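Mods, move this if it's the wrong board.
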Amino acid sequence: MTVLRDCMPDPKAPTHAAFALRRENRITSRWIEIGHAHIESTDKIHHVFLDRLPIGGFTGHVCIVPLGGEPPEPGPERPLGDGD
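Not the wrong board. Structure tokens:
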């Protein structure tokens, strides 16, 4: 029987969390956690493992933050106008 962890691309412990920006409506968005990353400051290559991606409303924006940190507050997708 093959153990799943033998197939994992990076056996090192994650140092960062990955978040995707998901649009809720025309004005608001929120970050959802989608995976993790191991980043070494001496290496120019970063390995990111994404567990999942949003099905609807995914903007394509991914933010990598140190473990325990929070991504920045998302701004409105478009500025509010007089009619909004």
